[in-house]
Design brief:
OB fold (Dihydrolipoamide Acetyltransferase, E2P), single chain, Rossmann fold, alpha/beta, 243 residues, 2 domains, five-stranded antiparallel β-sheet
Amino acid sequence: MRILIVDDEPLARERLRRLVAELGRDDVIGEAGDGPGAIEAVQNSNPDLVLLDIRMPGMDGLEVARHLRTLANPPAVVFATAFGDHALAAFEANAVDYLLKPIRAERLAAALERVRGLAAPHREVLPAASVRTHLSAVVKGRLQLVPVAEIRYLRADQKYVEAVWPEGRVLVEDSLKSLEVEFPRRFLRVHRNALVAVDYVAALERLDDGEMVVVLRGTSDRVAVSRRLIGEVRQRLRALRGA
């Protein structure tokens, strides 16, 4: 099998690489030290398996697994961590196995055998329930990550949702409702088809025709506020900013 090792600690990556080499059946085709790097490496090298650390700065391993699920042919995932409290979350993410550091050669060998015994359709990594730091979108056949903290607003566009941020706009497959539930403090519904990022709201502005719009920092776009939501939007902006 072709294996990608992902861990923010170089010594941990080196130990795993050595263990795989000692077992003598599989090839380590690359390494990554963080979540975005892991996703980039998977797309560039198409591994069969990702040996994935859970606790990493920024994007953790559970979120990486969630993004990998959107690929046409996602690799199998075996989580590795020094902390046993992530075991339940790992199996909820449908990991093939869960290895506790320091990883023993016999446990790694057993995990690799489990992966070899799976047909590709059964290797799909299901989403974890953790709140994400990024949304993902397939753009020209590649997975693009959009930092949630930089999104100015989200607007429903037929069956997709458009995420707008300083570097452009992309279509994500998440529903507007699911994003509202996942990020209740970050995004505020201002219209049946739009959420705005509270941190970037500069003002509410009334146009000449009486329509109310949200003015956002970092974009010249104006997002319409539904008449029935104007009162609630004002109230929630005051509450969220004061929290």
